[in-house]
Write a sequence for this structure.
């Protein structure tokens, strides 16, 4: 029996099959016309089947054992080729050459994903770049000098470009004025204007989202000094050297002198508003000096900054042996008189004065006093030490001690005086003072006598201890009508005992002067 093969793929077919089990191709029966043959050509005659084909179509005959004849094997290939059926190899080639249509499904998936990303990105961007969220980031940046606040500010004057560095003074200002920064934020939540600041739209982010910035009116500084040739630096950068051309019709008055001097002024700017530091340097009376000043430049205005350089004769008061510093320079040592006079010394109102003292193996540094603030009417300045008794409190204490000693005389009730001393009546200096008072009282030549103490300076003498340099004026009125006045100087010690200060030592006496009238 001859075998049949699929005309589409060449797969061998079982007898009676109507569809190819390999490719699904529908097989025609002997009575079915070829597809499209009715419209393309007249009905063709069915070719007469050969005996072999009839036999192969007969299922009964296919079950019979085949005869040892070579005829079916030699005629089957010829029959297939005659019918136009492709060989298996030829069918596979045709299947490979059949054009396959490209699916558009991945393209539509990509378009959908892109649309989701764009929509999500727009939603996120709209929130991130919203007016309020941009304001929140601007306020946060302005509240710390560690942040870069430049992207959030713009100058109303286009000649001033805001940078990470030149916005630092404004950040310093708001760091020290947090309540004002909070007020600015609250105002901008509902309004666009806060004083000289405005919250404005300025361009776009990514060409889609609006950009908001804080706009400000720039600030200016008018530098004023009392000498030409003074070089001024602002934030460490030189901004001007005042020359004869900067001479003004105005007069310059220092913060510690009433003498009028010629004023030199020079305007600089524009700047970002904020807290600035200035340093002026020049030569006065042959000595090079500097002056420092701090100023807050306000938006939309010009602030006068005093960077004057002046000379002054003044006295620094302190403990004997203390080292004196003026304007950061070591200038001398306090003498036995408890003071150091400086003649025609170049200073400014902001010039600092401080002392250092070595005591008990430690170096103590006093508070920094300033000429313009702490210079008294006698042109004296007395820096004090942190944690030590103040000069005024020490003066009150020593006055009370010697005033109380006057009331002792021959009385045995001295408990009040003992309260001023460490360890009370057992203190050796207390006992010396009682002995001295009794001696003066028992002197028949004394008609009357008086004590008056005056503190010159105080200095640290160790933990919770203070060295007190003071004078006591003794006045003796004799029966013959004469008066003798003696001044003795002491270096006593006061200790902090709980919440009170008490005398540890009155010190040894050194005569300063004596006068008899």
């Amino acid at each position: 029996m001859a075998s049949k093969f699929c005309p589409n793929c060449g797969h061998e077919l079982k007898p009676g099959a109507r569809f190819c089990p390999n490719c699904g191709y529908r097989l025609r029966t002997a009575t079915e016309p070829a597809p499209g043959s009715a419209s393309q050509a007249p009905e063709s005659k069915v070719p007469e089947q050969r005996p072999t084909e009839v036999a192969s179509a007969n299922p009964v005959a296919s079950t019979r054992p085949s005869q040892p004849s070579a005829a079916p094997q030699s005629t089957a290939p010829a029959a297939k080729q005659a019918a136009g059926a492709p060989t298996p190899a030829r069918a596979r080639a045709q299947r490979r050459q059949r054009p396959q249509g490209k699916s558009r499904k991945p393209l539509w998936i990509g378009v959908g994903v892109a649309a989701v990303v764009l929509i999500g990105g727009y939603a996120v961007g709209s929130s991130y770049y919203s007016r309020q969220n941009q304001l929140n980031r601007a306020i946060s940046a302005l509240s710390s000098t560690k942040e870069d606040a430049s992207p959030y500010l713009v100058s109303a004057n286009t000649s001033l470009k805001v940078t990470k560095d030149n916005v630092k003074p404004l950040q310093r200002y708001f760091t020290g004025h947090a309540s004002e920064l909070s007020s600015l934020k609250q105002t901008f939540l509902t309004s666009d204007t806060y004083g000289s600041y405005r919250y404005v739209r300025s361009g776009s982010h990514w060409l889609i989202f609006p950009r908001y910035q804080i706009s400000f009116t720039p600030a200016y500084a008018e530098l004023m000094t009392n000498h030409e040739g003074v070089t001024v630096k602002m934030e460490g950068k030189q901004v001007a050297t005042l020359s004869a051309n900067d001479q003004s019709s105005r007069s310059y008055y220092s913060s510690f002198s009433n003498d009028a001097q010629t004023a030199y002024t020079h305007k600089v700017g524009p700047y970002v508003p904020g807290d600035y530091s200035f340093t002026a340097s020049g030569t006065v009376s042959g000595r090079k000096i500097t002056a420092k000043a701090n100023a807050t430049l306000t938006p939309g205005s010009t602030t006068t900054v005093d960077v004057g350089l002046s000379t002054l004769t003044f006295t620094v008061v302190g403990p004997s042996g203390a080292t004196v510093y003026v304007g950061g320079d070591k200038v001398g040592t306090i003498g036995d008189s408890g003071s150091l006079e400086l003649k025609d010394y170049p200073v400014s109102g902001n010039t600092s004065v401080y002392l250092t003292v070595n005591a008990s193996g430690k170096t103590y540094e006093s508070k920094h006093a300033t000429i313009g603030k702490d210079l008294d009417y006698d042109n004296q300045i007395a820096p004090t030490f942190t944690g030590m008794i103040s000069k005024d409190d020490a003066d009150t204490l020593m006055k009370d001690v010697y005033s109380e000693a006057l009331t002792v005389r021959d009385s045995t009730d001295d408990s009040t005086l003992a309260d001023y001393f460490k360890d009370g009546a057992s203190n050796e200096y207390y006992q010396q003072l009682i002995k001295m008072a009794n001696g003066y009282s028992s002197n028949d030549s004394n008609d009357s006598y008086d004590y008056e103490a005056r503190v010159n300076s105080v200095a640290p003498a160790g933990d919770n201890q203070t060295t007190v340099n003071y004078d006591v004026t003794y006045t003796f009125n004799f029966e013959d009508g004469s008066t003798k006045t003696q001044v003795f100087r002491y270096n006593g010690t006061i200790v902090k005992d709980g919440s009170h200060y008490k005398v540890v030592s009155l010190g040894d006496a050194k005569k300063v002067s004596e006068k008899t009238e």
User: Anything to note?
Assistant: The first helix runs from residue 37 to 40. Residues 1 and 64 are 9 Å apart (CA to CA).
